[in-house]
Amino acid sequence: MRLPALRVGWLRQTFVHWPFRPEAVQALVPETLVVDEYDGAAWVGLIPFVMADMRPPGVPAAVPGLPSFAETNLRTYVRRRDNGRDGLWFLSIEVACPLMVAARAVGAPYNPGTLRVSANGDTVTYAGSRWTGGASYLLVVRPGDLIEPTERDVWLTSRWRAYTRRMGLLWQTPVEHEPWHLADSAVEVLEETLTTAAGLPAPLGEPVVHFSEGIRHVRLGASRPCAPRRVPPFRA
Fold first, then answer.
1. How many CA atoms lie within 13 A of 226 on its CB side?
2. DSSP reduced 3-state for 99
3. Does residue 20 contact residue 204 with C-beta atoms inside 8 Å?
4. Helical segments of the chain, H only
5. Which pLDDT band holds residue 100 (cuts at 50, 70, 90)?
6. Which end of the chain is less enclosed by CB atoms within 10 A, N or C?
7. 40 φψ region: left (φ > 0), alpha (ψ -120 to 50), beta (else)
8. Separation between Cα atoms, residue 47 and residue 195, nearest integer Å
9. How many degrees, rounded to 5, is the angle at CA 82 between CA 80 and CA 85?
10. Are 224 and 172 in contact (CB under 8 A)?
11. From the CB of residue 232, how many other CB atoms can be counted at a distance below 10 Å?
12. Best CA proximity match to 127, nearest among 194, 216, 52
């Protein structure tokens, strides 16, 4: 990425992933995307974290007064039908900063709400509720030791573009950042209605949970429409 549109840090992040029937998740994404699968399942992640030091390029993270706020994503993993490029599809985004709702202009499904992230001893608590619609969550996790990520761990946590839909077009936003340092995490409390609000059925199994203290050097590119791949004409 030669010139990012935005620099941020993603801190104190937990990944909660459930497996679902692929057809149940496919019904919630555009026809131009196909749900990506691992071990025969589609995966949906509930990802709460702190968005920190949000700034334009050229502004250092040490500048006082840069905004930090809680955010929680409900996302799945997809590929474009025309060229197979993988990425994220957001089913919903909960955010404590109402100004972020402006990102709906490129199709990002932001919902303003009351969110908090707090640490108490060796546990981390995430809680949030939408201002409208009633969807909410409460998650308390106990992070463990750092792990050597498996292939599945990397597959669940590392994507380098996000897709959105606007004005009938598919858009993509590129992302770059350093590798995650992941730890296993035990769930103490998990209550949520975000998956139901998104139209998902019950998952196929128990969640897979990871924790990371976060990454501070995230680079987000400008969103742009996806040009369909040109297919050469058939010649006999």
1. 26
2. helix
3. yes
4. 22-26, 151-157, 194-197
5. confident
6. C
7. left
8. 12
9. 40
10. yes
11. 5
12. 194
Tokens of 131: 């201002």
Model pTM score? 0.93
Main-chain dihedrals φ then ψ at residue 36, nearest 5 degrees: -80, 145
Could you tell me the sign of the dihedral formed by the alpha carbons of 204, 210, 216, 217, in that order?
A: negative
Report pLDDT digits (tens) over 6-56: 999 999 999 999 999 999 999 999 999 999 999 999 999 999 999 999 999
Domain ranges of the chain: 6-225
Res 236: pLDDT: 37
Q: Are strands 161-166 and 86-95 parallel, antiparallel or unpaired?
A: parallel
List, in order, residues 6 or more apart from 205 with CB less than 8 Å away.
18, 19
Q: How high is the mean pLDDT of the chain? A: 93
Structure tokens at 166: 């606007």
Ramachandran sector of residue 72 (left: φ over 0; alpha: ψ -120 to 50; beta: rest): beta
Q: Tokens for 203?
A: 């998952």
Higher pLDDT, 62 or 81: 81
Residues in the chain, total:
236
